[in-house]
Design a protein that fits this description.
The complex is a heterodimer of chains A (87) and B (271).
Chain A: H1 3-9, H2 13-29, H3 36-51, E1 59-64, E2 71-76
Chain B: E1 3-8, H1 16-29, E2 34-38, H2 46-49, H3 60-64, H4 70-73, E3 75-76, E4 83-86, H5 99-112, E5 115-119, H6 126-133, E6 137-142, H7 146-159, H8 164-167, E7 173-181, H9 184-187, H10 194-201, E8 205-210, H11 213-221, H12 225-228, H13 233-245, H14 261-266
Parallel strand pairs in B: 1-5, 1-6, 2-4, 2-5, 6-7, 7-8
Antiparallel strand pairs in B: 3-4
The chains are: A alpha+beta (87), B alpha/beta (271).
Bound molecules: adenosine-5'-triphosphate and magnesium ion.
The site of magnesium ion has 5 residues of chain B, from helix 1.
């Protein structure tokens, strides 16, 4: 183990602190109650379902909660679209 | 054939979540497909220990209640593609878990993975009994300390009475995982010896996990110890235990971290 290694190893606490700050900021904002992501997801799906039939099994949802921005990725496999050429 | 394992203890804070993450990662490192499931509804922590806390969208309760598909709630590990996490809900309580819902989810997980590792909440209430309900085998996490041993004994009793296997009159496989073990203390007569614990609980020993700073460091950074510090004593001990769980015969070694050079120079002050 090199000295640098040793130094790095002693410093996991700041990482822990940063992870907790981000996590708790999100959990407190949620107020322990409503599940914003779940609500968003349902509503987005409903909108899309009005225009085409979607297989719920084929919907992938990915979330990354960051300290300043979070990203919500909803990946919906759209059934084959019949493209009609304009005559 | 998938194997469902409950990681349980009765007593709180003995190392269930740490062990679920480390054993799950170790089995995945051995090439198995693994899912770790957090049954500690309302107090989830497995996501943090696995480093996936920012990526939780749906959870066990959503799947149990049919609000989300299993595939949508599973979070695939970023380091090991054959390791997944099914997080617990942080906002609900344990009453949201229904026996039928859990049965359905576990059955579905059995189809997808080789190993289903269930991180039980502490205690002997609904959460703990539902976590063990469908298990084929149990890892009983115990510290070499009187109240932990007593609570493990109670849990062993429940495993032999309240699980589906027990109700069908089948044998419930149980393994003892001794954690937070400090070799110096039993030697000084300050702590129960491994033999004492084994004799009292009389279930086979799966492994001895040393008390280790690496475990704390791993939780801090959100990487199971077998992945983040594979050469550490705790990681080696968990890797050995995972191999035994998978049926390999591995000699029982009490691993200890070697003190580095600086540790030697300054003696105990540094350590
Ligand atoms: N081998 C070890 N060496 C040092 N610290 C450890 C070890 N195992 C666990 N710990 C620490 O002990 C504490 C409790 O561990 P953990 O959360 O895994 O226990 P638990 O049984 O899941 O608790 P709970 O009953 O609350 O769910 C944590 O701070 C963890 O880092
Ligand atoms: Mg726990």
């Amino acid at each position: 183990m090199s000295l640098l290694d040793l130094f790095r190893r002693r410093n996991s606490a700041p990482v822990a602190r940063e992870r907790l700050q981000v996590l708790l900021a999100h959990e407190r904002a949620a107020g322990g109650g409503s599940d914003l992501v779940a609500v968003l997801y349902e509503e987005i799906l409903a909108v899309i379902a009005r225009h085409m039939s979607v297989d719920r099994e084929k919907v992938q949802v990915k979330l990354d909660r960051g300290s300043s921005v979070s990203t919500l990725e909803i990946d919906i496999e759209v059934p084959e679209l019949v493209v009609k050429r304009v005559a | 054939m998938a194997k469902v394992i409950v990681v349980t203890s009765g007593k709180g804070g003995v190392g269930k979540t740490t062990s679920t993450a480390a054993l799950g990662a170790a089995l995945a490192q051995l090439g198995q497909s693994v899912v770790v499931v957090d049954f500690d509804v309302g107090l989830r922590n497995l996501d943090l220990v696995m480093g996936a806390e920012r990526r939780v969208v749906f959870d066990l309760i959503n799947v149990v209640q049919g609000d989300a598909k299993l595939a949508q709630a599973l979070i695939r590990d970023k380091r090991l593609e054959n390791l997944s996490l099914l997080p617990a809900s942080q906002t609900r309580d344990k009453d949201a878990l229904t026996a039928e819902g859990v049965a359905r989810v576990v059955a579905e997980l059995r189809e997808k993975f080789d190993w289903v590792l269930c991180d039980s909440p502490a205690g002997i209430e609904t959460g703990a009994t539902l976590a063990m309900r469908h298990a084929d085998a149990a890892v009983v996490v115990t510290n070499p300390e009187v109240s932990s041993v007593r609570d493990s004994d109670r849990i062993i009793g429940l495993l032999d009475a309240k699980t589906l296997r027990a109700e069908k009159g089948e044998r419930m496989e149980k393994h003892l995982l001794l954690t937070r073990y400090d070799a110096a203390r039993p030697a000084r007569g300050e702590m129960l010896k491994t033999e004492d614990v084994l004799e009292i609980l009389s279930i086979p020993l799966l492994g001895i996990i040393p008390e280790s700073e690496e475990v704390l460091r791993s939780s801090n950074v959100g990487t199971p110890v077998t992945l983040g510090s594979p050469a550490s004593a705790a990681a080696r001990a968990y890797m050995d235990a995972a191999k035994r769980l998978a049926g390999e015969t591995v000699a029982m070694t009490v691993w200890a971290d070697r003190k580095g050079l600086i540790g030697k120079w300054f003696g105990r002050k540094v350590a």
